[in-house]
Amino acid sequence: MANTSLLPRRQSLVPFICFCVMIFTLPSSQGGNVLITTSLGEGSHYFVGKTIGKYLVKHGHNVTMLVSKAYAHRAENPDDAELNFIVFHQSAEQIESVKERHLSYSKNALEPSGAAYLYKLIQAHRKGAADDCDELLGQNPDVMRRLEEGNFDVVVYDMIWLCSLLLAMKLNVPAVLSSPMAAPTMLSMYAGNPVNLASTPDVMNGYNNKMTFFQRVNNVLANRVLYSVLEYHHVPYNSIRERHQIRPDLSGSISNLVGTYTDLFLVNLDFAVEFPLPLNPNIITMGGITARPASPLPNDLEAFMQSSGDGGVILFTLGSYVTHIKPEFLEPFAEVFQRYPQQKILWQLAGEPKFKLPPNVKTMPWLPQNDILGHPKTRLFIFHGGNNGFYETVYHGVPAIIIPLTGDAIDQGVRLKHHGFGIVLDKTNVTVDILRVAIDTILNNDSYSEAAKLLSSRLRSRSMHPGDRAAFWINHVIKHGGSYMRSPLIELNFIQRNLLDVIAFFLAVISVILVISCYCMKCTFRCCKRMCFTTKEKHD
């Protein structure tokens, strides 16, 4: 017979055992407080920051997103309930300015790419972004008090708004830079990463890593122009820093401080598709951070996908920044989609179109892009070339047509063409015939789909998801700091960094040796001549 007198004692141990199991199975990392301010609350830069935040929460950290009042609705999104939000106040005039600046991407989307386009875009944002910063630091006492009482261990910021770096300095906490763009040359300038412009194309150049002589010349010039434009963009933050007395003990301009104050650089690239280049230990790749296994679609969207039959679905979007564009640019798409009744088309389009849509087209103001790309019915992705969309289509192995519109989109087009899983079209020459040829080529040629699947397999073959990698390294900075990983190159000036002083020294040494050699040869020649003349006189 069982000893029933022991049952109550055993039962009383059950809660204690469960408590012990819970304690010992908690994540080993102690949760930190992380402030993320990767943009004012809109666009791909915000979505990358939010994704980093969700992975940090998964790893046991407390995450707070700082957003502008212009995008206060972000704090009410039930999908982001695990994140905390601080909304900083802005005047009605400044809120309108924020939204107008966001629309400037749409207004300038069809402008020719290049240095002039970049300058025009930065000019549209420069003063407004600085005013946002001034308003945050000087006219939001309650928000600043909450930030100071937040006991943050680290600030994750974005180059798009360097006020975030000033905020990290004001709170006296480490800073981690998040870059949604690949842009290796741009980051290298600030992180002190050695980069060879002979084989590493600069951002927005449209070159691959095998450049001709004149392309290399242009690459070097473009790199200097880009640096100058960014320096111009950063100038107002130096005045703001001085006005608000932020860390006067630290020397250097705000551009210098990007390298000397930042502990870690998170960059949205992966060498499964990027051109090879060396990286410092404090530059961590997180290519494809927004890409993940597809989640089930809403019922109405799933029904639409299934209704496509064997023809499948073509997904078309111009991204989160280009939400309004002139109808003349979009009309050829509506016309060409009409010629593919066997396919269904999902089109992300804000507002009502000013032209007639064919019956096989479904428009929505927002689409779960990653989940649609991961659906077995998706056959082709036509998009503007954003880096997040690029990595999502690679992750899911879907061939693509890129029409580079803004920023670094032209660079994604180069990689798409280089790896052979899609076609690049010129935004200044998008016609029905050109679209038809491009779509037919991809749908009727299996090589594009096979190349996409090969890249997908390569990208997925990694030890951890880039979100987990980003969270791991941010946690590392919280625990151990990251200054020990900084490159010593950031302490050197242009002459020292490029060894121009050493080259000058060698040239000087060689020049001295040549001068001495010439002098010795001249003396030897004179001696020989004198000896010959003396001998001749004696002979005579």
From TrEMBL:
<keyword id="KW-0472">Membrane</keyword>
<feature type="signal peptide">
    <location>
        <begin position="1"/>
        <end position="31"/>
    </location>
</feature>
<dbReference type="GO" id="GO:0008194">
    <property type="term" value="F:UDP-glycosyltransferase activity"/>
</dbReference>
<dbReference type="InterPro" id="IPR002213">
    <property type="entry name" value="UDP_glucos_trans"/>
</dbReference>
<dbReference type="Pfam" id="PF00201">
    <property type="entry name" value="UDPGT"/>
</dbReference>
<protein>
    <submittedName>
        <fullName>Uncharacterized protein</fullName>
    </submittedName>
</protein>
<feature type="transmembrane region" description="Helical">
    <location>
        <begin position="502"/>
        <end position="521"/>
    </location>
</feature>
<keyword id="KW-1133">Transmembrane helix</keyword>
<keyword id="KW-0732">Signal</keyword>
<dbReference type="InterPro" id="IPR050271">
    <property type="entry name" value="UDP-glycosyltransferase"/>
</dbReference>
<keyword id="KW-0812">Transmembrane</keyword>
<keyword id="KW-0328">Glycosyltransferase</keyword>
<keyword id="KW-0808">Transferase</keyword>
<comment type="similarity">
    <text>Belongs to the UDP-glycosyltransferase family.</text>
</comment>
